[in-house]
UniProtKB/TrEMBL annotation:
PROSITE patterns: PROKAR_LIPOPROTEIN. This is Gliding motility lipoprotein GldH. Keywords: Lipoprotein.
Amino acid sequence: MLRSNILLFVLVFSLVVVSCDSNRVYDEYKSVPNTWNKDSVISFKINPPDSLNHYNLFVNLRNTNNYKYNNLFLIVEMVFPHGKTIKDTLEYKMADPTGKLLGTGLTDIKENKLWYKEKIVFNEAGDYTVNIQHAMRENGKVNGVVDLEGVTDVGFRIERTNNN
């Protein structure tokens, strides 16, 4: 009896968790070992679901309290199946004015869902590639931060828009 109650609880809990994220189409993370080197490009190969509907795109990031900056600069490149490339340099706020890290999470690991593009239509058939690398610099210094500390995982997410 106890075993069947536990099984029922796990099944119901799993359904609740999955149903809460019904807009998710693609969601993948890649781990960053110790530090994120400025030359390290994190790539995601995406086979889009269709060429008719609109989608919102996000860069997901997990960081610890070892992340010591108020912001984050990323270079995000989307390579289309037929070779066209769009490259953006993006800035995200990572801490409030008091220095407290933003993001969700009850432990010292914070998760940030960062807007990349909205209402995108994948109108070319084939695989898309998204490349992400950091472009951090310290104030007053010419050279960039070589090894960025505090980032544990970088992810990419595609969600259905509410208009689909």
